[in-house]
């Protein structure tokens, strides 16, 4: 399937985000902007002046693909940039305004009254998020949102439980441009016993959510048994918490594995990093979906992840990947040790097929288009 084509009315779609750093949502939007080739017009609008220029450069701009950054400073004034956003929308005449955070939706809400014919859509990208919204937010959603997209069944359940009056929650799994991850040559020969085993963790450095501290503690336990590993962390801390990186480095020293871990920061070459990995680990304390997992599965890397709802939907009951009890660093260490020396060929092939069948970017875009048009 090449993109999304339809003989119906061509849509004008705005994707509204507060920032555009290097993460799963941002990479997903790059794929949507590039893959949505139906003749619809797409505009990516970034509210704050916080953006990854290298990632933005991957978007193929054209007459029907545009990117606009309003340039607002984080926590800066709202009104001037709200007016700027309104001028953008007036010129674009959107049919769909798709917000990728509740903050982006609430920022743009006053403009709803100037665009009554446009459908407002909100995607909830994580668990443990919607249940924290105010009662007023839930009421506003019922009044002004056409639909809420949930990226997993666990996110969908959370929304429906927190806002039972909202009947327009739709499941839209995140998708992946499979060509970026398939048929790549490995950077290392797995039979080269003289090199360290490479463990890869790709996630924002946010331990309360992503659990990098759990993995580092597990590596400390693992190091008592073996030293032939290197764990690579790709991702940076939230902009308002740069101290997290130093905390994780200090934890590595306390666990005696400071020379067995490496922090790369934000990376735009995850497909290349995956070609050198022996094992992908995602130790999240909670997860709405975990797009990094399906990237690893598509690349043919065995995955080991915490047993939480969003992840379990992807890997099944140890069918397409392996699970460990959340926050149990001892079990995590034991499973890393075992998997580094196990032939995972059959599971890898099942995982690849599962990603192709369920989590392609084409399937995601087809579902979005169908929901946008009310089919």
Automatic annotation (TrEMBL):
Superkingdom classification of source: Bacteria
Residues annotated as domain Glycosyl transferase family: 184-343
Pfam families in the record: Glyco_transf_4, Glycos_transf_1
Membrane spanning stretches: none
Family matches, as InterPro entries: Glyco_trans_1 (IPR001296), Glyco_trans_4-like_N (IPR028098)
Name the UniProt record assigns to this protein: Glycosyltransferase family 4 protein
An MF annotation (GO) of this entry: glycosyltransferase activity
Record domain Glycosyltransferase subfamily 4-like N-terminal: where: 63-178
PANTHER family named in the record: GLYCOSYLTRANSFERASE
CDD domains per UniProt: GT4_PimA-like (cd03801)
